[in-house]
Specification:
single chain; 151 residues; mainly alpha; 10 helices; 0% strand
Length: 151
């Protein structure tokens, strides 16, 4: 939860969602700085951080990333995610960050991501994040909310 001096978007930044500088061993400030981190593979601790910060169950996060729980366990032992898995995790974190920014409240954002939404065919935004196209639909929906179009 945000402290009095911290906004929802600060507490739900991509960096904080993925464990901060302590886990990432880097502090990317712009999207281009994420590219080498994703190509190398993020530390597996980023998954644990995302689960801790969002309170999304591991099984639900695994489904949203289209990565089996067994693979996530293996990556935890190995210490690193693959570049493809890292890209999926960063996409997830960017959408959570965007949701917190649009809805202006961390708890509301996390609830919205996990709640059925009529504009998404009754599915949850989280359930669509396993594909790039689904993630785009979620971002479009957030854009509509941001511009006062209640879908």
């Amino acid at each position: 939860m945000p402290s009095s001096s911290e906004t929802a978007s600060d507490s739900m930044s991509v960096i904080s969602l993925l464990g901060g500088e302590a886990v990432l061993h880097a502090k990317p400030r712009v999207p281009l700085e994420w590219v080498p981190l994703v190509r190398k593979g993020l530390p597996s601790g980023s998954i644990d951080a995302a689960i801790r910060v969002t309170r999304i169950p591991k099984s639900d996060l695994a489904h949203a990333l289209n990565i089996s729980e067994h693979t996530l366990q293996r990556r935890k032992r190995e210490g690193m995610l693959s570049p493809e898995e890292s890209g999926k995790l960063v996409r997830f974190a960017r959408i959570v960050e965007r949701t917190a920014l649009v809805l202006e409240d961390t708890d509301v954002a996390l609830d919205w991501i996990q709640s059925p939404n009529p504009s998404l065919g009754g599915g949850t935004p989280l359930s669509l994040l396993d594909t790039e196209m689904g993630a785009d639909v979620v971002l479009d929906t957030l854009g509509g909310i941001e511009h006062g179009v209640f879908v």
